[in-house]
């Protein structure tokens, strides 16, 4: 069995047509058919049921498809790790991050790493936590900075760096803006501007639960994936927002921030460093230590 046979199998499993599958693989149909036949002979099972009119996956073929996808994903990870090592990985870090990492932790860690090693380089990209998990699995980044919880996986480690609270962000002319601080019971009855639920389902559920405990259903007036966009919608008067305390440097005209007191214990924004524990790059270890130090100093 080789990787090309597996690729042929997966293409045929998707299109269920030998002519289209062989064309997609850039092979003559007889050669393609022989590749599938050899794979079936090696596995000693029929992967496809063939008739003169149609091709279907057998039960064995359907089971093999999931494993075949995992095999090719592992091959791609191995390629990425090898290429990364060949490109002097010890002096370059590929990092993905959520916007909350930019308030303090990531800039402070990068500054510290560059002071220790001016030759170090960075490939940086913004990505959601779920996207980071996929990038790590594919070997396309060295580490991510995302929001836990994440699904436990053998090839993924998650270490919490910090836990932040939220401020209430109000339109400047909102009645609650006249108070020095606000409680969540006062906020719960107001329409809110939030992030999309799929972006942070655990935090979204915590906000919904706090509203319910205060006797109100969660009212979402608008959603935006970036904090700056959310605060701009608050300034337009669409609703109130919640912003991490560490983001107080973001100042949007027409809004005011107020502390939430008493503060709900369940309402926290955690930031974690995500990485593949098999990655033994010295630069990765140094980066994790720099991130932990930055989180402590924040």
UniProtKB/TrEMBL annotation:
SUPFAM superfamilies: Periplasmic binding protein-like II, Winged helix' DNA-binding domain. It holds the Pfam family HTH_1. GO terms for molecular function: DNA binding; DNA-binding transcription factor activity. Keywords: DNA-binding, Transcription, Transcription regulation. One of its GO terms (cellular component) is protein-DNA complex. Residues 1-58 form the HTH lysR-type domain. Belongs to the LysR transcriptional regulatory family. Transcriptional regulator of the ttuABCDE tartrate utilization operon. PANTHER family: HCA OPERON TRANSCRIPTIONAL ACTIVATOR HCAR (PTHR30346:SF0), TRANSCRIPTIONAL DUAL REGULATOR HCAR-RELATED (PTHR30346). This is HTH-type transcriptional regulator TtuA.
